[in-house]
Design brief:
mainly alpha
Amino acid sequence: MHAVAFTAAPILAAATPTEDGALKKKKKDSESDGESSDEEEEEELQLLDWGKLEEEMKGFKVKCFVMFLRVVTTTSLRRALERLCVSFCSRKTASRLLKEPAKSALRKFARTESRRHTAFLMVKTAAYANVLAYSANLIVEEAVLLYYFLKDSAEEHKTTLFVKKASHVVLSHAAAFFFSALGIAVGTAIKPGWGTIIGAASGDLGFILCNQGI
C-alpha cells in the first residue's frame, strides 16, 4: 500500500502546476490581452474619418458664437420691446402682453373653479403673452437671413431662395405660436400652474420641429 503511494507521488507532483508555472501562465495571458486591446484601439482609430471630423469641427467655434449671439440678441430685443410696450401702450394692453401664463392660470382657476373654463380663457391670455417673445425671435431670424442674403451676392437665384426661407421662418413661427397657445390651454385643463408651464414648452418644441431644414 505504501509502495503504491510512493510510486504515484512523482506522477501527482508532475501533474500539479507549480507556483512559477502559474505566474508564467498568468503573465502570458495578460500580455495576450494587452496585445488584443492594442489591436482593437488601432482598429477603432482606423475607423474614424479624421479628415471629415476635422472639416466638421472647423467652424465649430464660429457656430457656437453665432448661436450665443442669437440668444443674447433675442433676449435683449425682447426686453426692449417690453420697455416700449410699458412706455407707449395702455396699462391694460401692457398688462396683457407682459402677463405670466402660469400665474394667470392659477388666478383664473381660483376665480372660476373650473379647469375647462380656465383653459378656454387661457387661449386668449397665452396669445397676448407670446406676442413679444415670438416677435423678437422672428425679427432676429429674419435679420440673420437678410445678412446672408446681402453677403452671398454671387449666388444665383438668391432672391427666390431668400423669399422661400423668409416665408418658411414666418410660417414656422406662426405654427409655433399657435401650438404654444393650444398647449397652454391643454396643460391648464390638466393641471393649472405646472401644466400651463409644460404646455407652453410645446411651443418651443413646435418651433424646433417646424424649423427643421432651415
